Amino acid sequence: MPLLGTAAMLLSFDIAPEAIAEHDDWHTHEHFPERLSIPGFLRGSRWIAAQGQPRYFVMYEVEALATLTSAAYLERLNNPSPWTAKMMAHYRGMTRGFCTITHSGGVGLGQAALFLRFKPDPTSDAVLRDWLIEEVLPGLPATQGLACAHLFEAAVTPPGTNEQRIRGQDAGVDCALLVTGYSAERVTALFQTTLGPRQLEQRGATGISGGVYQLAYTLAGRPPSTTDFPA
User: Cα(162)–Cα(168) distance, rounded to whole angstroms?
Assistant: First the structure.
């Protein structure tokens, strides 16, 4: 499994323009370290839109779906720090999905990503899934300029929490595609051709949003067996 774990939390959102600089400072120096200290959180990555919207895409790779409804995680969501409570008020258009990994190929994360959220038309759900899993995604990790390809599907509805009440109701995630690479040109070309909105719509995808993203920051969690080096 190239992703670190068997499930993932996917978030996409905008931030009020006047709060972007502070958001990125908080997200890097307080929020990610806090989240990655929770048991079962393995890696977090924050991405910024280069083409498309919304501005931010964030992925948390987790050990299992149960991590996302664990007491330790909910305790943090229901007891936000003062800085977190301040920043929640600046979130706009949050989507948040607790997802299983339906297909995963390749290793590592490239610095450029194609990230698309969509909802399959129930009448063509199997056609879309088969096209992605059998025809398109398997060959992408070995393509020059690319590194990995993943398909996610919603598995658990996130419970309401105090953090969510501060920022407003979150929208859900039905399905999502993530393809990363070391070449932004190759990733952009994929968005404009094989995995563009038109190609997905032709096979029954609706409500498509996302685009091409650039990796801004990533942080791995601390393995339980890790010990400190002496000072």
Answer: 10
